[in-house]
């Protein structure tokens, strides 16, 4: 494995450990699969060898990522070995997850603002104003995510029609 790939795997692995709260091996596997640019798939044995991990640990990690629908497996015609790869709509799924989280946060913030209004009865109170500004920000972020998701879905539809 070349040095650039090693560094990218390390950086992405650290990122997934922080943002997704993945354990180190799951993060490394996900990062390694993310760098399978040709989407040819990676075998179980390759992951065990490259990551220098036990078969049971790799198996558990692959099952975890498969259950989350972050990765999928397939077999080639006349072959028995499973090949693992990132799901084709990986970016769309991640953005939809973020969008759902932001929508939930927006609703909770709205409830908090209503509660503060009942308690303080002053719509100009600082914490009420801050909540309103934050809700406005979340609404813009959710709208921008929706636009991006629609563009990606449209691109996916256009590329699948070409094939």
Write the SSE topology.
Blueprint: H1 3-19, H2 24-34, E1 42-43, H3 44-51, H4 55-67, E2 71-75, E3 82-86, H5 90-120, H6 126-162
Antiparallel strand pairs: 1-3, 2-3
What does this structure look like?
This protein folds into two domains: 3-86, Arc Repressor Mutant, subunit A; 90-162. Helices cover 72% and strands 7% of the residues. The chain has helices at 3-19, 24-34, 44-51, 55-67, 90-120, 126-162, and strands at residues 42-43, 71-75, 82-86. Strands 1-3-2 form a three-stranded antiparallel sheet. Strand 2 and strand 3 form a beta hairpin. It is elongated and about 70 Å long.
Brief summary of the model shown:
This protein has 163 residues and is mainly α.
List keywords for this structure.
163 residues, mainly alpha, Arc Repressor Mutant, subunit A, three-stranded antiparallel β-sheet, 3 strands, 72% helix
Total number of strands: 3
Query: How many structural domains in the coordinates?
Result: 2
Query: In CATH's first tier, which class of the largest domain applies?
Result: Mainly Alpha
What's the CATH topology name of the largest domain? Arc Repressor Mutant, subunit A
Q: Please give the alpha-carbon distance between the first and last residues.
A: 31 Å
CATH architecture heading of the largest domain: Orthogonal Bundle
Largest sheet: 3 strands, antiparallel
Average pLDDT taken over every residue: 91
Which shape, going by the Cα principal axes? elongated
Uncertain stretches of 5 or more adjacent residues: none
Percent of residues in helices: over 70%
- The CATH H-level superfamily of the largest domain is Winged helix-like DNA-binding domain superfamily/Winged helix DNA-binding domain
Across the major sheet, the strand order is 1-3-2
Radius of gyration: 21 Å
**Percent of sequence in beta strands:** 5-15%
What is the count of DSSP helices, taking H or I runs of 4+ residues?
6
Order of helices and strands: HHEHHEEHH
